[in-house]
């Protein structure tokens, strides 16, 4: 977790470090990113980096979570009934927001590579999925795959979302 020393930095220094980390994690998979490049570009000592973050994964998760908070309103899974329209709306808005976001490259890298490298997060997501009802779980899987397909093949985005709508409508009828 990001440390208080980073949170307490002056705005300009914090923004510079955040931008350098965004560049690093947008251009390198988590297993190829390195602290040396970050500290060199940010103009900070290596030791300072570790007063801000536990490790490289911690820094990555800080940047990734910041990106997600800026472009995505999480779907509230505490609703008692399955809401196909909400899944569709949230997925479509997410793709549109990512397309115009400074985080686009980071999020595509996350989906392609980094998501599978973050085993701890994967295990946490699995715990949530285990407790979902079947319709919600199915909609989540279908929605996440549609988001990936649409982001990596924007030319066919509308086609993917038409299929998502049809799939969600099928789930609604079950």
From TrEMBL:
Gene3D superfamilies per UniProt:
Tetracycline Repressor, domain 2
Residues in the DNA-binding region are 34-53
Q: Where are the transmembrane segments?
A: none
Q: Which UniProt keywords apply?
A: DNA-binding
Per the database record, which ranges form the HTH tetR-type domain? 11-71
InterPro entries in the record, alphabetically?
Homeodomain-like_sf, HTH_TetR
- Origin superkingdom: Bacteria
Question: Which Pfam family is an annotated match for this chain, by its short name?
Answer: TetR_N
From the Swiss-Prot or TrEMBL record, what is one GO molecular function term? DNA binding
Q: What is this protein called?
A: TetR/AcrR family transcriptional regulator
Q: Which organism is it from?
A: Lactobacillus iners
